[in-house]
## 1
Amino acid sequence: MTNTVLLLCLLCMTCFGARIFKRETKDPLGYVAVKLRSHQTIVLDGKLDDEAWKEVPWTSNFLDIQGPKLPTPRYNTRAKIRYDDNYLYVGAWLEEPNLVATLKQRDSVIYHDNDFEIFINPSGNVHLYQEFEMNAYNTIWNLVMINPYRNGYNIINPFPLDVKSAVYANGTINDPTDIDCCWSVEVALPFFGLRGFAETSSPPRSGDTWRINFSRVEWHYKVVNNTYVKEDKPEDNWVWSPQWVIDMHQPEKWGFVQFAEQEQNFTLPRVAYDVQSVLYWIQQAELEYYATNKRYADNYKDLNISSDSFDVSKGATPIVPGLKLLSIQLDVDYGFDAMLIYKEKDAQTKIWHIRNDSKQWWTPAICVN
């Protein structure tokens, strides 16, 4: 847990007695997924040559999972997203001069091969998120995480989702005598199947935002007796939106995908992002407090958190105006329930919660001054 806290990138500093909220990492990346028009279809053959793909932009090229300060990946990777009333479509192109694959049994641990991965947390609650992996043989693995690994190993593996997928290999798999070009993938994830854990509208409504990230695992190979053999080196992890640590299982750091009926510029959902960041920061303060006191704090004062914690003049990272501390209640099952309150313009006032297992959610505020 200590190493995890050190890598949070939500730095806790003490200033005039208050723990200061400071976010050191850059904002997550964003993408606008445009809905298919009624006459459009996507043929799942792995080629990404349908007009529906051609008219929307690629993501930026993937970076090292720890961010742009690490070396640029050896090979380029990029993705696109579309959707209709039934499916979330993901297409990806992966540069690869040496196509390698070994696993052919569905729901094998696919990242033991070079692979492409999709992570989806529709509600942004950090729980009940989807992981999908595939290799160049189009062998797939689908599972659902009940919570992040840092909060216990609770998964549904495999998760029965009627995924449709295809791979186009531009080269020859497992043939070291030639130089390959790349492989590309198309995946259709059914909204009906995602609905059971989405905790939000599935299919999404225009204007909705989901937390999503893409990952590529790339191993180092050498040729022995005309066969690809893994080298004794750690794998590379390349992602769309940086995680800042070597851990895909921190959903609060994934990118944002906004759903829209037509093309538009991406706008960071500032309220949702700031709320989630502050809640996670409070959770870490509680965990630090517990490590010292063997109990959780039932008030913000014991955590050295107050309105001063968000004072920009004292070095705090700016957050949306109106986001305020509310209270902390101890919980027999989940340790604590730390709460913030925020009233969006022309919308209901919401109380936002976090507990010790990272679960985040909101409830309507009733009779709160």
## 2
Amino acid sequence: MRLLEMLAVHHVPTWLLVSSHGWRLLTEECGIKDDRELKKATGGEWTSVRVFDDKDRGAEPASGSAKTAGMVICPCSWWILWCSACSISWGSTSIW
């Protein structure tokens, strides 16, 4: 959350996707249940943050041709790290 807060406060263009597992962790560990609560917890300044639905497999970040300066996967298990390094999908998780 601190990284998202810093990116938003400094107006760094940010694409945000929170998986169902991510929402579960945010809810259990931080009491944050939705975008509105996450926005409030990260300072409320989201003019540079673009939120995408995790279920939208056609969203711009899913495109292999989308230009970005980098990517953060947080939290990241060894399995997701391996999948992203190898550009493979597993179940409903696609990392390209």
## 3
Amino acid sequence: MKKTYRLTAIFCLILLATATAMAQQKGNYSMRYVKKHALLSHEGETNVVNVDMEWPEAMDGAELLPLQAYAIKLLFQQNNSDLDPSLQAFMSGYGEEVQQQFDALPDDKRVCYVDIEMRLLSYTPGRYVTFHLKRSVKPASQSSQEASDVHKMVTYDLQTLKPLSRDDILRHDRIEMSFTDFEILLPEDLLQERIYDLSVNDACLVNDKVLLVNSVVGELHGEYTYQLKFSPESMWRYLTKDARAMLKPQKATSSSSKKKSESKGTSQVPSVSNASQPASLLAPDGVVETIQPEFQVPDVTLNEYLTRSVRSVKDEINGVKHGMVMAMVDVDAQGWTTGTRIVLPLAAAYDREVARVVRGLPRWKPAIRNGEPVATQIAIAFEF
């Protein structure tokens, strides 16, 4: 049974910044967490759209536009690299958002369910990052929407700036056509079964291992899909040149250094001046005015609230991890959480749990500057 691990400590810093400064402060690592649920109506049809995305904004100073454009093309079928307008255009294709109750129940035969997901699988600082992308469109019998079910893993080379899918990583036809090394490609419960066919559906790199999603047709189980991780050595003869290069850590060259910032291969806590002092801003007249947003849940401190909210973490890909995750939370002038980013990662499942918790924080009493509420950024660190 796999172990899980709970957090051991929580630290909170309040960073005061204008909205523009918050938008620009991405640092060495920034993963934006976007979650939307919308009920849309178009010409008598009802469309339910769920979006759950982990969107890379900064990683080791590497250019991310090729990865972002790849993801938007696959998920939204648009030629763009800017998430917000692409998502807005995609959702508008399913109608206008319903703002009030229906006069009558929607016709079940004219409903369509749409799920968009982009999830971090693994991040190897300075070398590569891997995501799982999903677009699922399930229309009812009389819906005008076209059904689709796309699942794709992509490994992005942070050195060469290439998004790599299965065919770019693995010579899968060699595995499928010759039954060489067939046994190592099967899970234990299929080793004694007669197998008639094997297909490598997808492949990526995670934590310097090769992750395969395979389908087999067996005598007892019939068609069966599973995923397994393999050492590079066991897959070496099937790996492409690009995959082999990523699995060998390389020193940054002069050409690659132009594509990266001065800090390479490590994630850093954003620099905060006077973090131990009360949060403050300079007013236009030069007078320092101390301001601070307040956590408003009665009889509960922020640390107590967060500690109660965090669940035990189970990470199938990365295993048990010990370390810190830092989240940056944007709080608007009304006190609502408007944005969540992980700026110091640990592993995908741990980062995801922290993002879930801070995204659900209740309304704050906003910070005040010169008598007016202002937007604030709050850094919360979780120690696992």
## 4
Amino acid sequence: MTQNKYTAFSTRLIEVMKTRGHAASRSPSGICMQTLATFANASEQICRRYIRGIALPDYEKIKNIAHHLQVSPGWLLFGEDETSPTTDQTKQVDEDVLHYILKKSHHLYHKEMNNTDDYADFVLGLIRDIREIDTSKENLQKIINLAIRSISSYKEKRYEEAM
């Protein structure tokens, strides 16, 4: 039997759900699927896939789940040590990370140069999101790539529908 792709994420999610009091004795996974669905703003069906380790939530859902469970998105995704407490101080974005975002995302809006606000809004939104994740540069780059691929596929679908 092969191990599911997102088993480590699933294990951390189940562990923290139980630790935070969201256990369910009747559920095969031992957690309340309805609560997870509410936290993730997703269906119970997709949440079961998260728990089985065969699907990974998008970043917004991970942020929501982490917020409700009072853990960092970085820990939930990658299991990194959560030693630094969450503070209200503004976390700076490393110049290398900013350069990486700009380098990887500029192609999303090059055809629409007449509307540079969309590009600026996208980059600023992504920066706001990654500032909340305490993880390595390598993992941040993975998250950035995921976000860019997600918006790219959305834009491709919109373009195809318009044709």
